[in-house]
């Protein structure tokens, strides 16, 4: 018996379809998670459109933002029980002997493989998960919100750990997708005055940003970043990832400021980096997250201090995955969530 799963089966554009996949069997140290909600990530869209820049182990079930209930435990799993409500980190395969893993930065282990591209993900009914990846979630945290712990952790790591944002700073976010919006909310929690810039096609998303008190722009944000003293924003967060947006970020950041690049893009840089030197600017990449970040984000979500209620634009059954994907791709929603039956 197989279960309907959203499978990316080839590198060609559009190579995603529903397939029946057998229920996984737990290996040593694993649990089988019954998926209750799984978020659609921009990376899922990139694999669907074949615009990604990372290796994929085809065929693979998509989905790395998920929450659910433990359905079965494998050998040597002693701290988890059937019925526990959990979310899972994304580092499905890591080298525990890698020096980075030993200091807790397993997200930076070069051999790391994640759900949805390296191993089967969670756009299905049951997914095998190493027990070390699990975090408990409180009973009053809904699964459709809990499944967004992962992108919230990406934003937390970028804004709180990898940026140096202080209360009163002015922060500009480029790109009002899920990660951009969550980075903007994290910057607000850090005490910053925040603006976000997108395209006219992002109007729905920008209106949601405005409802959070984030200043939206659909054109040149230069006037806003230079409004105080003419020098630029204290921090610019590039969540779009393309070459042009990095160039804008370098232009809009103030001397001695910082640019945090969290967006991916395979395009080569087509401009001079000399302004980084001239302006004494720090450019910081930010990738993924680790255990303490997840624990802090779960608390922020559970207490409501991080309000993501307007980020989730809709929930669809797994069979309607393409509708959910297109809603996000066309900018009609910030985040789509799939609910396996």
Describe the structure.
With 341 residues, the protein is α/β, with parallel strands linked by helices. The protein contains 11 helices and 16 strands. It is globular, with a radius of gyration of 20 Å. The longest helix has 13 residues, at 149-161. α4 (149-161) packs across α5 and α4 crosses α10. Strands 3, 5, 6, 7, 8, 15 and 16 form a 7-stranded mixed β-sheet that branches.
Distinct helical segment count: 11
Principal-axis shape equals: globular
Uncertain regions spanning at least 5 consecutive residues: none
Summarize the biggest pleated sheet.
Answer: 7 strands, mixed
What class would the helix/strand composition place it in?
Answer: alpha/beta
Q: Which architecture name of the largest domain does CATH use?
A: Alpha-Beta Complex
Q: Averaged pLDDT, please?
A: 97
Briefly note the CATH topology name of the largest domain: Quinone Oxidoreductase, Chain A, domain 1
Q: For the terminal residues, how far apart are their CA atoms?
A: 15 Å
Strand fraction: 25-35%
Total strands: the figure is 16
Helix-strand topology string:
EEEHEEEHEEHHEHEHEHEHEHEHEHE
Topology:
Blueprint: E1 2-8, E2 16-22, E3 30-39, H1 42-49, E4 60-61, E5 65-73, E6 85-88, H2 99-102, E7 126-130, E8 134-136, H3 143-146, H4 149-161, E9 170-174, H5 178-189, E10 193-197, H6 203-211, E11 215-217, H7 222-225, E12 233-238, H8 243-252, E13 253-261, H9 274-278, E14 282-285, H10 291-303, E15 312-317, H11 321-329, E16 335-339
Parallel strand pairs: 9-10, 9-12, 10-11, 12-13, 13-14, 15-16
Antiparallel strand pairs: 1-2, 1-4, 3-5, 3-7, 3-16, 5-6, 6-8
Helix pairs in contact: 4-5, 4-10
């Amino acid at each position: 018996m197989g279960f309907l799963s959203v499978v990316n089966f080839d590198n060609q554009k559009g190579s995603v379809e529903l397939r029946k996949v057998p229920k996984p069997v737990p290996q040593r140290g694993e649990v089988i998670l019954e998926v209750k909600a799984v978020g659609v990530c921009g990376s899922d869209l990139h694999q669907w459109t074949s615009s990604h820049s990372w290796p994929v182990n085809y065929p693979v079930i998509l989905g790395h933002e998920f929450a659910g209930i433990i359905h079965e435990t494998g050998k040597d799993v002693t701290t988890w029980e059937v019925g526990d409500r959990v979310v899972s980190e994304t580092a499905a395969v890591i080298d525990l002997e890698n020096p980075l893993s030993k200091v807790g930065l397993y997200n930076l282990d070069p051999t790391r493989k994640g759900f949805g591209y390296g191993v089967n993900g969670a756009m299905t009914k049951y997914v095998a998960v190493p027990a070390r990846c699990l975090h408990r979630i409180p009973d009053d945290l809904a699964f459709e919100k809990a499944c967004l712990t992962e992108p919230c952790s990406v934003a937390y790591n970028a804004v709180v750990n990898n940026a140096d944002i202080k209360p009163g700073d002015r922060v500009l976010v480029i790109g009002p997708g899920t990660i951009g919006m969550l980075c903007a909310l994290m910057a607000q929690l850090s005490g910053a005055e925040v603006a976000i810039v997108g395209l006219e096609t992002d109007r729905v998303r920008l209106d949601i940003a405005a409802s959070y008190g984030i200043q939206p722009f659909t054109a040149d944000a230069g006037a806003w970043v230079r409004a105080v003293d003419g020098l630029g924003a204290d921090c610019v967060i590039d969540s779009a990832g393309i070459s042009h947006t990095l160039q804008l970020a370098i232009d809009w950041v103030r001397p001695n400021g910082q640019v945090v690049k969290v967006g991916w893009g395979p395009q080569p840089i087509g401009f001079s980096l000399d302004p980084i030197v001239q302006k004494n600017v720090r450019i910081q990449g930010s990738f993924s997250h680790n255990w303490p970040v997840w624990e802090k984000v779960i608390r922020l979500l559970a207490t409501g201090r991080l309000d993501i209620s307007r980020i989730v634009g809709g929930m669809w059954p797994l069979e309607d995955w393409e509708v959910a994907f297109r809603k996000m791709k066309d900018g009609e929603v910030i985040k789509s969530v799939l609910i396996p039956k």
